[in-house]
Amino acid sequence: MLDHFQSEEQSEGGDGGRTSRSELHVVASSVSVPKRIVRLWEYRPLLISLVRKELSVKYKNSILGFVWSMLNPALTLVIYFVVFQLVLKNGIPQFAVYLLCGLVVWNFFSNAIMGATGSVVANAGIVKKVSFPREVLPLASVGSAMVFFFLQGIVLILALVIARDVPAFSYLPLLLFAFVDLMILSGALAVLLGALNVFYRDTQHLLEIVLMAWFWATPVVYPYQQIATPLMHHGLLFLDFINPMTAIVLTFQRVLYAKVSPMGTTHTVVHLLPANSVLWFAGQLSIVLVVSTILFLIALKIFGRMEGNFAEEL
Amino acid sequence: MPNAIEVDNVSKVFRLYSEKFSSLKERVIHGGKNPYQEFHALKGVSLNIGEGTSVGLLGHNGSGKSTLLKTIAGIIQPNSGEIRVKGRVSAMLEVGAGFHPELSGRDNIFLSATLLGLPVSEVKSRFDEIVEFSELGQFIDNQVKYYSSGMYARLGFAVAVNVDPDVLLVDEVLAVGDENFQRKCIERIKSFQKDGRTIVFVSHSPELVRAICDFAYVLDHGSLIGEGSPAEAIAELRDSLNRNKGQVGGAVIGGDVVVAPAPESQDRPLSITSLRAVADVERNTDSTRISPNDSLKIVVSYSAKEQVTGTNITLSIVAPNNDVVFSANSEDLQIEPFDIDSDGVFELYFDKVPLLDGVYGLAVTINDRSRIPMAWAEEKIGFQVVNPSLVSGLVALEYRVNPSSRS
Question: Which CATH code for domain B3-241?
Fold first, then answer.
């Protein structure tokens, strides 16, 4: 015991033997966004710790553990296969795979922001007692949603292998681009909603409804072309791209499902995805990137404004 | 000496809601406004704390001391003003903050330490020491929910002191764990002092502040009302306590003298008009503040409407908790009874008052031959003892230590 102390503190009994750090913390009524980002970056070990905590707590005391998060999309896959391909026969070849491409993305998005919305309130105990950049809490929800995203991604890859689908390799780099967009967009909304929910607890209930509407506004279940064609006739195609998720989901579908207008199971050509070039996709994703980044900065700003009252409000 | 903490004109206003509407529906119904009162927890507080000093923050409930500590820690942001803290800050406002009951002690160490801003590599290198300090041994891999509250507290404290802080903020968390562990915590804090780290310590307990700190600030209603050595600050704190009591109690204690007015006092032949203590008998100053073992004079003035013979006087000294520390009657001291025929003064002398810190009250009765009180007076703030030394307790006992060992 004592040995420990001595080996740790070589400067027994001496002042100044210990060199104190000199970084300066400033506590003031407002902290600028760049400073917040720097502080967030310093706290990335905490982000990792919190993600680990969320993951290990979620499946604690369950026998299958992480398998659950993979069973969920796998089972969805089977159900949609049975319903849409065997019963309803919607004509889209390998509909289950098509669906899963979009669904994995959507699950990430909805898990991330649902979790983040409640995150600050759920961690009231530490918010009131410990000083750390509180943005870490909603971002940790994004982090843990990301882990599940990768687990579900494994299911998706397995489905692709089983269905013997070949991804569009020339579009492959877009996948990374879309993923970055997805992360920033989710992060922005996570930070914003996490703060908002502290003051308006109905944010999370409202969000459930909004997310449901948003899900059907995004071409996950139905093919993009089905809605884009009528919209285009009225010159309203831009409506579809007000939703930033459209571009992201389309990219995943374009890369992984890869069939733009395949021969359907009813022996007619079905138009699923836009037959546009890599550049078009990259352009769409760039717009989303810019918008998401601006949104993220605004979210940090708003979060910073509200953060000062968290400890009192909780 | 450079400053470790600079608090610059910091104010904090809390909104006290009489009713909290936190759902949208309620907000709409109430026009988006919550009824609230403003509570000024801190009013333009400025102070500098030098590197390597241990500073106590004293104050009563609601004085703003914990708010100040939380603002220094960065948990709450001030409405105006700025706080600059140099180096790594570790705040111990609650032991085991951020622990998750479902996780093992091991996982919680990582979680809690990263929460306090420690990089993972440093947690790893300190891990053994943390476990050692917490005395948890093999239980470290058990889930925290199975820990006893003592184990929980030990682990929390072990993490907090092992993050190698430059500035340690402590809010009365020492009251956890068994005596042995408490001693260890205080030892750890002392070793921090030796290392030249800065410590800010908030406590209700003047004794702990006296034991640990070398300087103290006193807060009252959000303002700084005193500073100085722990002994001075504690005296200041007690002063303010009495002032506050005066405001609240109103009738009982006013300024200097309170004569308990008997209902039919007008009719009484004898009444006490004033009762006061005078410190420093030789110099006869007005001060009522003494150090332990100083001399003290009690002056009792009375007025008599008619002649009263054979009276005696009883004086009691009352401790802050209303215990009578001393009581004596003049007849017991073999003093002849007094004959009173007009206004006059009794002077009672104490050569030495061996009491320690506290505000002591006085109670005097003038009794007739059969010791039935004829007039009485009570003074809740009779005199105050301010103890400059480090001893604590009630009575200033004199003691020696013989350093040679028996063998």
Answer: 3.40.50.300
